[in-house]
């Protein structure tokens, strides 16, 4: 996960795995005077349907199971005092088998002021062109919200379906742009936080949760109350950081419309609960969110460009602990793999925010299943530092417990690097190799053909 909100410090799990990940320390300046708002409006532009490839089927890596952890045949969740909840194999798992198959995020957002924000649909995360070999030549969308000018869409359909969220976030987005108290990465975090509380609002409004039309990429099964059970590491955050979180919380309270807040917190008691929840949610985002990214091939077949475009929160994927010698890796959805890798055809949900967790080696029954939140090629000292500063924990994986100079652990870690890390000449991608038929494919720089 690198790259969760570190921005607050925007770091999200697994964003670290790419060399393009940013981990900016955001500064939250003094609160501006923010006027209370009672309305949040969204104006839509003239509907122009952009030619989109979103309805195409795609082939994605051959995966054996289509079940999420909650009802998974091959894994289950356990708990320990030292590492909290963790996932273990219920049975022997073969290399290449999926542990989590195509998980969609509970909430997801584009980075604030992302350079490609006009080329990726803010609702379905589809690209504006599936043929362009370069993001610079990929055309901009024309459909957008012209009140905030922050969200862009591939189609009228996506714009309409996103309205259920956007009508509640638009005003805060607008105020955020003129506010100098938060930096860019902090504003990305605020965007994701808004999505979370809008989700809470919608769940309260419609307990049956038939709220999100079929094109939405967000998971329908997981509920807000489940998200609140995710790890916070609350007592590991500095007082200064919690003060920053409180400033964000105040900003949100002042900019969200009153009707909206009344639904979430109808009484004073619930107002306090809401304020505390916001702090808790910011900690949850920092410890659990994932980087949203994808790769596209450049003009020469041997080079690929990696784009980190947003952050998302996944419930099932948040159950995995980190290991510096992981036995699974995260595989990001692609449009079409160069060679058909499976006869299994999956309906394309049109986004890069969907991912799967795949075994990179055989896993024995009862063994812990974990992936890497950060680049495992870093030295042990640097890995420990990074995990502590970005994710607020002291790593207790087999490579990290014990003496820094322990020869056996240094040796097994370097054997892991030798066998499972991509050695692509196209850059030090440090991706993890996962098996696909008889090949090994890098989860970061693997060739993806956008057709
Ligand atoms: C994404 S959550 C993983 C699930 C978590 N254990 C839970 O109970 O919800 C990340 C958190 O799990 C714990 N964790 C993950 N990997 C760990 C490791 N290698 N050593 C110690 N704690 C770890 C840390 O508290 C970390 O912030």
What is the strand tally?
Answer: 18
**Average pLDDT reading:** 77
Q: Into which percentage range does the β-strand content fall?
A: 15-25%
Radius of gyration: 21 Å
Q: How many separate domains?
A: 2
How are strands sequenced across the largest beta sheet?
4-5-16-12
Our count of helices gives 8
Identify the bound ligands: S-adenosylmethionine
* Helix percent band: 25-40%
Structural class: alpha+beta
Order of helices and strands: EEEEEEEEEHHHHHHEEEEEEEHHEE
Extract low-pLDDT stretches: 2-10, 15-71, 211-216, 336-350
Sheet with the most strands, sense and barrel status: 4 strands, mixed
Keywords: Metal-binding, Zinc, Zinc-finger
Domain SET: 73-374
GO molecular function, one term: zinc ion binding
Domain MYND-type: 121-170
